[in-house]
Design brief:
By secondary structure, the protein is an alpha/beta fold. The protein has helices at about 25-35, 75-85, 115-120, 130-135, 150-155, 160-175, 185, 190-200, 200-210, 230-240, 285, 295-300, 345, 375-390, 415-430, 445-460; strands at about 20, 40-45, 55-60, 65, 70-75, 90-95, 100-105, 110, 225, 245-250, 255-260, 265, 270, 275, 305-315, 325-330, 340, 355-365, 400-410, 435. The strands form 5 sheets. Strands 8-7-16-17-18-15-19 form a 7-stranded mixed β-sheet. The radius of gyration is 23 Å and the shape is globular.
Length: about 450
């Protein structure tokens, strides 16, 4: 068996494999689900008193809202296949047409992101010069700096206004990050590959669309998705199929011990041939005290964006019509929010008829100080921002809940290559240790599902 980031030799029989999975978030549960399907022995250990990691669905007074990820995108076929494999235990919900509309805050009002040529010509989001520049994008030479930031690449190919009013807010929504610090080939590998494989963003998109796709590849529609009734139903379906007996909860202060015999590992009273970690970089040294601190430190260079989410439910919505996925805010606009998601506009049953369910996001890499505000201070800012931006005469939500995430989103920036090299070196030095989770391979829900599936499927080929 060979894990894709490991140089572990094929020297173990499938019957002898016993795997510890650290973390019952989406990555860990997906890995466990497919290990069980593949007939491999495993056990999941979770520090919290419930599975699912940050995924949690709340149902209150006629509203359904998430604390944690609100939606995913079907950017990998493995995401669609997971729902297929869960069959009747969980139903995929694909967002309705409203999700195709996206807004950007500019000069005191929302502007729609153009979806066609006429809209692109008319939009105030981009300067006239940059509109001409975008027309010439397919003819520009690819860059030569492999560590080019997203900001550098976009300025070079599309222009400053495209960076300011499209890419900057997009990265606020995805990474809560700074395009001047995120490295394109790690943070947005598909965008990077469009230029370096096909020569340009626009030309590459056209060429890729013309390429024949397998039926499996067609499942990666990029559509926004959730699970019917909320994402926690996906967690419940995974747990049902994995089996409660294979998951231990409330496992505080976990520590893996390396045994001298045949690279086996001890966790509690049990011995395992493999340990799959899905924890954040900040938890690795405590979990694996035998790993060289220098190498772990290279992984732990990675920063995390601190994000606060405020969920607002209105039984009688009196603001702007919100048939849209949501609105994002360029950092140059100097607002106190990263963006507002309009969940009830594109997912079913998220608010009572005539109402609205919003998620307001604050903080991120640029404004970490907002994470430290108390509830009263936060709500004053939210009231001011939402009232003004959403056209409300009064701010009187029926539901108002605050969720804070100190390690919300890892930033794939300057340290990424060194981090990945350290992960590879550690997995080679300590066969059986697999360092997974969102420290590598992408941060989206589909990325997490794909990683878990790949890891599990490697064990089926022993």
């Amino acid at each position: 068996m060979r894990h894709k980031n490991s140089q572990e030799p094929c020297n173990v029989n499938k019957e002898d494999v016993k795997i510890a999975i650290i973390g019952a978030g989406l990555t860990g549960l997906t890995t466990a689900f497919y290990l069980k399907k593949n007939g491999v022995k495993f056990h999941v250990f979770e520090k919290d008193n419930r599975p699912g990691g940050v995924i949690r669905t709340n149902q209150e007074d006629g509203f359904i809202f998430e604390s944690g990820p609100n939606t995913g995108a079907l950017g990998q076929p493995e995401a669609a296949e997971l729902f297929e494999d869960l069959k009747d235990d969980c139903t995929l919900e694909v967002a309705n047409e409203a999700a195709k509309a996206r807004w950007i805050w500019l000069n005191g009002k929302w502007e729609a992101i153009p979806s066609g040529l006429i809209g692109g010509i008319a939009t105030p989001l981009f300067t006239f010069g940059d509109k001409l520049r975008i027309l010439g994008e397919p003819f520009r030479k690819p860059g030569t700096n492999p560590d080019e930031t997203v900001a550098e690449m976009v300025r070079r190919r599309m222009g400053k206004s495209f960076l300011r009013n499209a890419v900057d807010p997009f990265l606020s929504g995805v990474y809560a990050g700074d395009p001047e610090k995120l490295i394109t080939r790690f943070a947005l590998p598909k965008l990077y590959n469009l230029e370096h494989k096909y020569g340009s963003f626009i030309g590459g998109t056209i060429k890729k669309a013309k390429e024949p796709k397998t039926e499996r590849e067609k499942k990666a529609t990029k559509a926004v998705f959730s699970a019917e009734g909320g994402l926690e139903n996906l967690v419940k379906a995974l747990v049902k199929n994995i089996g409660d007996e294979n998951i231990s909860l409330s496992c505080k202060n976990l520590e893996v011990k390396k045994l001298d015999d045949n690279n086996s590992y001890q966790l509690g009273e049990e011995t395992f041939t493999h340990v799959i970690s899905t924890v954040g970089a900040y938890g690795l040294q405590h979990l694996f005290p035998f790993l060289p601190a220098e190498k772990v430190g290279e992984i732990n260079q990675m920063k995390y964006a601190k994000v606060t989410q405020v969920s607002l439910g209105f039984k009688n919505w009196k603001g702007l019509p919100i048939k849209s996925f949501g609105g994002l805010v360029p950092s140059a606009e100097k607002r106190q929010v990263l963006g507002i998601l309009f969940l009830s506009s594109f997912l079913k049953y998220r608010a009572p008829e005539g109402g609205a369910m919003l998620s307001v996001f604050m903080g991120g890499i640029r404004k970490p100080e907002l994470f430290e505000l108390n509830d009263e201070e936060l709500l004053k800012i939210v009231e001011q921002e939402v009232t003004e931006m959403m056209g409300l005469q009064t701010f009187d939500p029926d539901i108002c809940r605050i969720f804070r995430y100190e390690h919300a989103i890892p930033q794939y920036s300057f340290e990424s290559e060194q981090k990945l090299a350290a992960i590879s070196a550690l997995e080679k030095e300590f066969p059986g240790v697999i360092l997974a989770g969102n420290i590598r391979d992408g941060i989206g829900m589909a990325d997490r599902i794909k990683q878990g599936r790949i890891i599990a499927d490697h064990f089926s080929t022993i």
